[in-house]
From TrEMBL:
The keyword Transmembrane applies. Keywords: Membrane, Transmembrane, Transmembrane helix. InterPro entries: PH_YyaB-like. It holds the Pfam family bPH_4. This is PH domain-containing protein. GO terms for biological process: bacteriocin immunity. It comes from the Bacteria. Residues 63-140 form the Uncharacterized protein YyaB-like PH domain. The chain crosses the membrane at residues 14-32, 38-58. It comes from Halobacillus yeomjeoni.
Length: 147
């Protein structure tokens, strides 16, 4: 089953500020440096800007969590994490969304701890948390749940 990422106003504001800052940093040189006033520089710089902007927006808007038959697949832009259910140790709700490995766009998150892998935990925020947790509980009966 596929779950979309929840989005809240805090992360929308954060993403708006990030896009605004990126735009200002990439447009700022045009105003103060005469060497940037040529066609080639504008084409290259605009291409770099558009690539970064589109990559950023796609990676934020394409976050999904898939509960497959044998594993949880966390997708966020180019990031993919495949976590087998038998490797999940525990999961709990968390408000700490700024530290650690996180693929989310909301403050109301779930942290999943698992064996193996480099990170050992991932923070996610599916839209329908109750249904997600019910399915995860059914798939991982040995995992400890702290909510």
């Amino acid at each position: 089953m596929v779950f979309e990422a929840a989005r809240d106003s805090h992360f929308r504001t954060l993403m708006t500020k990030a896009v605004t800052n990126m735009t200002l940093m990439l447009v700022f040189p045009f105003f103060f440096n005469q060497a940037t006033h040529n066609v080639w520089f504008i084409l290259v710089w605009s291409s770099i800007y558009l690539f970064l902007l589109v990559s950023f927006i796609v990676s934020v808007t394409k976050i999904r969590y898939e509960l497959n038959e044998n594993y949880l697949l966390v997708k966020g832009g180019p990031i993919r994490s495949k976590i087998p259910y038998d490797k999940i140790i525990s999961y709990n709700t968390t408000a700490d969304v700024y530290c650690g490995y996180r693929v989310l766009t909301a403050s109301d998150a779930i942290e999943i701890f698992y064996e193996g892998g480099v990170r050992r935990s991932v923070k996610i925020a599916p839209k329908d948390q109750e249904t997600f947790l019910e399915i995860l509980r059914a798939q991982c009966p040995k995992a400890q749940m702290t909510l």
